[in-house]
Amino acid sequence: MQIFLQGKLLGIEDFLLAPAGGERDHAFTGRSHWVSLLGEILPRALLAELGLAKILLGSSGGGQFLLVLPEEVRAAADTFLKAAAKEIAALSDGVVKLIWSVTENLGDWSDVRRRLNEQMSRLRGTPWSEESSTSSGEQASDAEAYFEGQLGWKLRDAEAVGWSRETPGRILVGEGQHVWTLTGSPESLPFARHAAPNDSGTEPASTGVLASRAAGLGTWGVLRGDVDNFGIRIRRAQTIEEHVQLSVMYKQFFAGELEVLCSMPEFWRKVTVIFAGGDDFAVYGAWDALIGLAREMERLFRRFTETNLTDYAGPEGKTITMALALAPAEDASLGSVFEEAGRRLEAAKSADKDCIWLLGRTLEWKQFTEAADLKELLLRMVTDFGCSAQYLRDLCGIYRETQSKMSKRQARKMGGERPWRYHRRIRRIMSAARPFSGPLRADYQKARTALIADLIGRSAVTVKLRPAGRVALEWARLSSEV
What sign does the CA torsion over 451, 456, 459, 460 have? Predict the structure, then answer.
């Protein structure tokens, strides 16, 4: 008889954000690599240790895995995972917890999945024993050196990773009793690890260096993305084959497309990958490059779903939501900005789907395109028509003042403000432009009229300031800062 074994890592986000001494950004990167690779390495190492065929690996990555095993190896698999779980708990000081469930291959896949998930639900609330979940001071120091050194930077250029019985919860770089390649083979592990190089090309660029490479304001940020209702899409799978196909398809998209996209000329010196999971991703880098990367990732994901998911009913798993958080200071920690991006992502997904939280607003992707076009028009007023860059900050003030004076309920009730007030104020703000004559004056008047319409709409009676306009103003302001 065959059995299904499902494994999952809990506490990943808490572990990434846990305090770290020394090089905190190095430790954050190493922790991210560790949890990303555990979901790939552990099931492969289990099969290798038991002498079983690779084809028994169902799905892996994103902090979880699924295996099909003979009933005879159930006890051996349990021993293997207990040893791995104990060291995983020690390395993470009890924050990361490996749990697994097992059931017989009996009944429809929906019944099998239900039994696996019910076991998982019970295990989630089971506390670790104190012995297995805590580490000594020496172990904690060793773990910190492991994440900062071995997985923080060394893994960036490694050609292979491995696993050994002596250290069942560790990912080894280029060595081990069982080794898997990261590059140059169809069987390579899907692992996105692009890192923008520093000026000398000897190691990944720091956040400060990435900030200096941004156009306009010198700052950096973190971009996070997550597929909308991916869990629902997976639960609708009717067979194990469909479940595996969907899991592998999404995982390969994020790992492959993100790595290729980050190697493009406009991104390779400005963006570094944090992780690419089964249904999500995170990167950090220069703020302007992250906005461009978000736009490209959405375009590629839309094309991916149109090509591969046309036979699947419903919108679940076919859209993606993202959020960009900017560092409040150049020396801000990578973990804190990552956490802020996560909060903004959750807020965006709670309010809507298929959207992006950007520069203070949640926009649908169609509105994002409108904001990008309007940003170019705003900058053109400075570069082509001589408006002072100060006018961008003054225009931003219109939004701030309106928001402070009028609640959302009041705005809905009143239908907005009278449009001529905005026309008059915008003309006054832009009056610093040098005088024009002839065709250039006509171009200026046309651009100003289009700008007003894009900011406040075309109604002659009432107006509500458009969120895409607010984002475009912030975007243009940041682009014009020096």
Answer: negative
Q: Rounded to an integer, what distance in angstroms lies between the CA atom of residue 223 and that of residue 294? A: 8
Contact 136, 10 (CB under 8 A): no
pLDDT tens per residue, range 396-422: 766 655 444 444 554 444 344 454 555
Please state the domain extents for the chain.
2-181, 207-358, 368-480
Which tokens hold the place of 196? 């923008």
Instruction: List CB contacts of 331: < 8 A, sequence separation 6 or more.
Output: 208
Asked if 277 contacts 254 with a C-beta cutoff of 8 angstroms, the reply is yes
Same fold, 2-181 and 207-358: yes
Q: Which long-range contacts (CB under 8 A, 24 or more apart) does 451-454 make?
A: 451/374, 451/377, 451/378, 451/381, 451/426, 452/422, 452/423, 452/426, 454/370, 454/373, 454/374, 454/377
What CATH number labels 2-181? 3.30.70
- Residues 123-141: what's their mean pLDDT? 61
- What's the topology of domain 207-358? Alpha-Beta Plaits (3.30.70)
Give, in order, the Cα–Cα distances in Å from 288 to each of 218, 292, 294, 348. 10, 7, 10, 20
pLDDT band at 460 (very low <50, low <70, confident <90, very high): very low
- Residue recorded with tokens 């991104």: 267
Name the token pair of 142. Answer: 């060793």
Which pTM was predicted? Answer: 0.88
Least confident range of 55-64, 136-145, 408-417, 449-458: 408-417
Contact, 229 vs 280, CB < 8 A?
Answer: no
Q: What is the pLDDT of residues 461-470, one digit of tens each?
A: 444 567 788 8
Q: What is the arithmetic mean of pLDDT over 192-208?
A: 88
Q: For residues 158 and 181, give the distance between their C-alpha atoms in angstroms, rounded to a whole number.
A: 9
Rounded to a whole number of angstroms, the distance between the first and last alpha carbons of the chain is: 68
Each residue's pLDDT tens digit, 288-320 = 999 999 999 999 999 999 999 998 999 999 999
Query: Is residue 259 packed enough to be buried (19+ CB in 10 Å), middle (13-18) or exposed (0-12)?
Result: middle
Given CA atoms 190, 196, 200, 203 in this order, what sign does their dihedral have? negative
